[in-house]
């Protein structure tokens, strides 16, 4: 009888310990799952507020912005500014020009930019720049984007600084167009596209 009781008692202890292990395992699984969901949510929310600072289409740094309106401002104005830098800032080097325009700037816009580029090629504009030895820089004065309409109308106001034999000459550079949202790609990290682009003024100062 004692042996039977001892066996029964041992089985009860084993069963009790098994339940304890099961309960502890379930509790730990619940805690770990909850923590995983929490940190995944935090990571996603943090990622939503991170935006790349770009220079000539290249990522420089990641910044955290909690104000969504400010984030849109930085994204759109940065896209416009980078495009003008890539398209209108020129060095007397055809390979450098093609790398900036064909390899980067054209991906940032639509057919209107491609047509402008083709027209300038037909006019031998880039060959003349390469032969002249002139270096052209872009100086931004202001960018205005109207977010009350979509696609977003914008206007860029700035200057081209032309370096000739150590001297500097200036041309106005006033453009307008519209910004559309598109898919982000390795060639267009911002996920924005410039459409209906036009040069309004590009005269000597």
Mean pLDDT: 80
Class from secondary-structure proportions: alpha+beta
Termini, distance in Å?
Answer: 113 Å
Q: Widest sheet: strand order?
A: 3-4-5-6
Question: Segments where pLDDT lies below 50 for 5+ residues?
Answer: 43-49, 51-65
| Overall geometry | elongated
Which sheet architecture does the biggest sheet show? 4 strands, antiparallel
Strand percentage lies at 25-35%
Helix content: 40-55%
Task: Provide the gyration radius in Å.
Answer: 30 Å
Description:
The structure is a single chain. The protein is an alpha+beta fold. It has five helices and six strands, in the order αββααααββββ. The protein has helices at residues 2-48, 68-88, 94-101, 111-122, 125-132, and strands at residues 50-55, 58-64, 135-145, 152-164, 167-181, 192-201.
Please give a handful of descriptors for the protein shown.
two-stranded antiparallel sheet; four-stranded antiparallel sheet; elongated; 5 helices; 205 residues; alpha+beta
List strands and helices in order, with pairings.
Elements: H1 2-48, E1 50-55, E2 58-64, H2 68-88, H3 94-101, H4 111-122, H5 125-132, E3 135-145, E4 152-164, E5 167-181, E6 192-201
Antiparallel strand pairs: 1-2, 3-4, 4-5, 5-6
How do you describe this structure in short?
By secondary structure, the protein is of the alpha+beta class. Helices cover 47% and strands 30% of the residues.
């Amino acid at each position: 009888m004692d042996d039977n009781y001892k066996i029964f008692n041992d089985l009860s202890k084993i069963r009790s310990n098994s339940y304890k292990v099961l309960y502890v395992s379930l509790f730990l699984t619940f805690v770990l799952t909850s923590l995983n969901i929490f940190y995944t949510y935090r990571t996603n929310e943090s990622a939503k507020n991170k935006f790349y600072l770009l220079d000539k289409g290249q990522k420089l740094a990641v910044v955290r912005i909690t104000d969504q309106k400010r984030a849109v401002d930085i994204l759109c104005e940065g896209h416009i500014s980078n495009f003008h830098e890539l398209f209108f800032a020129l060095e007397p080097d055809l390979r450098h020009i093609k790398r900036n325009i064909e390899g980067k700037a054209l991906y940032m816009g639509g057919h209107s930019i491609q047509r402008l580029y083709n027209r300038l090629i037909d006019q031998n504009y880039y060959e003349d720049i390469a032969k002249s030895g002139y270096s052209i820089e872009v100086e931004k004065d202001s960018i205005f984007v109207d977010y009350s309409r979509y696609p977003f109308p914008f206007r860029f106001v700035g200057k081209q600084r032309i370096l000739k034999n150590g001297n500097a000459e200036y041309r106005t550079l006033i453009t307008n167009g519209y910004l559309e949202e598109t898919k982000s790609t390795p060639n267009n990290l911002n996920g924005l596209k410039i459409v209906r682009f036009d040069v309004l003024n590009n005269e000597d100062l």
